[in-house]
Amino acid sequence: MLEFLGRTTKGIGALAAAAALAASIGAANAQETIKVGILHSLSGTMAISETTLKNAMLMLIDEQNKKGGVLGKKLEAVVVDPASNWPLFAEKARELITKDKVAVVFGCWTSVSRKSVLPVFKELNSILFYPVQYEGEESERNVFYTGAAPNQQAIPAVDYLAKEEKVERWVLAGTDYVYPRTTNKILEAYLKSKGVKSEDIMINYTPFGQSDWQTIVADIKKFGSAGKKTAVVSTINGDANVPFYKELANQGIKATDIPVVAFSVGEEELAGIDTKPLVGHLAAWNYFMSIKTPENDAFIKQWQTFMKNPKAVTNDPMEAHYIGFNMWVQAVTKAGSVDPDKVIDALPGTKQPNLTGGVSEMLPNHHITKPVFIGEIEDNGQFNVVWKTDNLIPGEAWSKQLEGSKDLVADWVQLKCGNYDSVKKVCLGTATK
Amino acid sequence: MTISLMRLVLSALLGLVLLGAGPGFVTEGRSQGAADIAPAVARFAADSYSDTEAGLAALALSPNPQAAAIVDAVGDGRLMFDPATKTVYVKTKAGGLTDAATGAAVTTAPADLKTVRLNNRVRRAVEAAAGALALASPDAAKRIDAAGAVFKSRDVAALPALDAAIARERDTDVKAALAQARAAIILTKVDAPEAERIAATKLIVDRGDQEALALLAGVPADASPALRTAADAGIEKINRSLAFWNVAQNIWYGLSLGSVLLLAAIGLAITFGVMGVINMAHGEMVMLGAYTTFVVQELIRTKAPYLFDWSLAIALPLAFLFTGLVGIVIERTVIRFLYGRPLETLLATWGISLMLQQATRTIFGPTNKEVGAPSWMSGAFQLGQLSITYNRLCIIIFALGVFFALLVVLKRTSLGLYVRAVTQNRRMAGAMGIRTGRIDALTFGLGSGIAGIAGVALSQIDNVSPNLGQGYIIDSFMVVVFGGVGNLWGTLVAAFSLGIANKLLEPFAGAVLAKIALLVFIILFIQKRPRGLFALKGRAVES
Predict the structure, then answer these.
(1) Does residue B506 belong to the interface with chain A, where contact is any CB pair within 8 Å?
(2) Predicted confidence band at B129 (pLDDT cuts at 50, 70, 90)?
(3) Domain identity same for A232 and A380
(4) Size of interface A-B (CB pairs under 8 A)
(5) Is the pLDDT of residue B366 over 70?
(6) Which residues are CB-neighbours of B532 under 8 A, at least 6 positions away?
(7) Residue of A nearest to B50 (CA)
């Protein structure tokens, strides 16, 4: 009974604190604030990945306010939940821009959701920072891509396997949607340009949420027994990965036999799996939590304190938001205004130290420069970095490997065009894409 | 203490120099045991993958008893070194520290020890070295494993050790495995006599599996014609036998997929099949069952770790009771007001499913939860060329067990009698004194409870996340409708035939097309036979 009473008083205390907090937010509202929109799914299938990003943004905004905000004003986060529903993304984006009058939006995860909000950002002329690795083939005036383009993740990973693991046969396995399909098309063209024969490439697509991997893993095993070293390049989407890796372990395929390099498996995804059977499988990212730099140590500590969880993990898209957010702060400070046109002009050229020891720069094509790391999964759910690029790689909006896109150039500073055809010397504009 | 440490450092450094001069160089002034591995051990302190690899290769050939301990330690990440003094230590499984070269216990651990790092190349070297070292193990099973490791590594350096092992081997099984390992080395050894290589081909062909195929396919095209012919003939022979095993394997995978479909659908066969409720929240009952397993395992992990192997058995009744209770609550508060209004039922249960999902997400978070497999459910065994995993086998047996238990409940118990009476003619059953409302609640609870135990089993092969149920709801309805609404046997036949058909189609059509083809087939089938495979006859159907 006493304990119950104690708990009640604690509850009342918490309520009072919440009320005080609400009051202080109210007071802050009374002054002028700059609103920052956060457009990440907090329910539905994508909540698994996107909830973390919402929290990361809240932390970054909180941190910036402690430093005094931007242009002398406090930042105010406006969080909406598009519920993993693609059309709802567009509605919520419109709501953020027109009703809440946000200065900038950080959000989206899947390419479908990005494509769904694009017209809204163009029509209402606002700014979107997109933090996830994607298939490229896009450059928009209103969007800043802080995740990796294919040349900043997929191609270096394939180079690593060919050079270090002497891989000659390739399985390109992915979930059946736009990102894996485009990435695999680029990779296939790239491998063929390196002299890999078609019979040494196996491409396999599976539906979303595939849970029965027996046949496919058996096929991979068969494909791998042709006397040449084989590797799997996996663009399998989040949820389907756990059963995939479980099946690999069940059928006795170890990383030493057929390594799997994944582009969508990070620290967050590994938190839900027993990683012992996965040890040695690879992932390619632009950031790993295990990288030791003073910036990263500070960031991890800040995150774990913010989440009140000493085991909370950080991941690549969080770093992308960290870079993007700080670039936006710099650009706003430089422009002296949050006016979208001025900020869009100020952003290219801004430099921001990333968490892995380099300095990322926003390029005229609205992509950023990033280092590429290859990590091997360890039994504690972290990655052991086994390889990294010497320099930061500039993101390419248009793939050099694909017909129809290799001649395109994106440059929003000189050419003011996202898809300039360098052969015909003409900006294709919005008509084609 | 310091003097011996200094000496060790010196010897290690000396060893590093000597290794360049050539292995087998005998140095003076130290105990013989430490001397022959000291140079190899010193390489681990270099903190480079290629040095670690070289160290492992040198250890694999050493008769020193420390070698096996060191190789094991590298593989487990227990080999440490002091970057300042370049001394290498083994951290024992108990947590103590020993000097790697001598095996002597170290009482005061130096600060700032670094672990010898691993990558895939090093892991392969560890496997090869451990294999070569275990050839002399007194345990026959370990020797077979060792032969397998050597077969994989095809390390020419292991050949003398292998020959010695074959000469002293008494056990015929082990001898055969060793001979295969030797054949693998000979086949890939370019300077081996041709006759021996052709003889090796024959041994490899007898093995008859994927790895043998890989080995034979790896014989270069410019090898001598006789060898190439032997290898090609072998490949053809293996392919013929594998073609048969492939079909067997696909059927096995089909049975396994079928059992998963059966498990997912069997609860729905009660709530939708018998009661006629279009229950969109069925998948969420499966999900709740899986989360029950997670909670039980969490409690066991913190309170009673020794019970872990029993965690699934403990979770089963709890999941049944919990989801059954949730089912009864849903039936009493929502569904009972909606009998005879299928559209409203569909919308209401769909709403409930969203609420349950979001509630789970709020309580447990959106990320996947880890549900471990008890030790007896991990691993696989070989049946001919078929590798059968224990967890899939357990799920097939379990699905059939649940099915027959349910059949007994419906056919042999008084509850089953009431259920059948109420579904066949509600008013008549009521007139006979059966409390139809209570039976409705219990039936819905039974269906939900069974979905819950299905969740316990499915937690072993799928993600335990709030979305778990969504993946199964369509498949479940597909199975029940195809099998014939209201017929349990139909559900069984439908689940297994859909599973097998899917897996036989998949190798040709791919996972995406196979699924589409099946859906199209079912749509056409339902056009022809709207009541499914096994249609119920009788008054219930007409009404």
Answers:
(1) yes
(2) confident
(3) yes
(4) 132
(5) yes
(6) B481, B482, B483, B484, B485, B487, B490, B494, B526
(7) A164
